[in-house]
Every structure is written in structure tokens, then in C-alpha cells.
Design goal:
The chain is built from 1 helix and 5 strands; from the N terminus they run βββαββ. By secondary structure, the protein is of the alpha+beta class. It has one domain: 2-Layer Sandwich (Conserved Hypothetical Protein Mth637, Chain: A). The chain has a 5-stranded mixed beta sheet with strand order 2-3-1-5-4, covered by helices on one side. Strand 2 and strand 3 form a beta hairpin. The longest helix is centred in the middle third of the chain and has 14 residues.
């Protein structure tokens, strides 16, 4: 399953908002330096879907706000 995620780094509050069945907005406190924001987004997705980190893969958008993840 592929999902689209729009990330808001450096937010005051953390949260996950489901926009559609395959689209999310995620706010994280971490800065987009050395992949810290990407790690926080993966952790948020792990908590939401109740899966392990090995089941989530970042496919597209390593350096942009709009990302595509593959969930196994």
C-alpha cells in the first residue's frame, strides 16, 4: 500500500491528520537536518498503523515535504 504524506517539520505540536484513505498530514517537532524529521514521521506512522519500522519504506521525497511511503 502506498500512502502520500505532507510533512510539517519544526512544528510546535506533533500530530497526524488523515486527509483521505491514502493521504496524511504529519506535524513533527524535529528539524529537517540529517533525516531527523523523516525518522519522526516514520515513528508517527509506526504508532498509527501499529507496525514495525521494517514494514515502512520511504519511496520518494527524501528532501521535500511531500513524501510517498510504502507500507507492507
Amino acid at each position: 500500500m502506498l500512502i502520500k504524506v505532507k510533512v510539517f517539520p519544526c512544528s510546535r505540536r506533533q500530530g497526524l491528520l488523515k486527509k483521505s484513505p491514502d493521504s496524511f498530514e504529519i506535524k513533527v517537532k524535529e528539524k529537517p537536518i540529517k533525516g531527523n524529521a523523516n525518522k519522526a514521521v516514520i515513528k508517527a506512522l509506526m504508532d498509527y498503523f501499529q507496525i514495525s519500522q521494517s514494514e515502512i519504506k520511504l519511496i520518494k521525497g527524501f528532501r521535500t515535504r511531500n513524501k510517498i511511503f510504502k507500507i507492507d
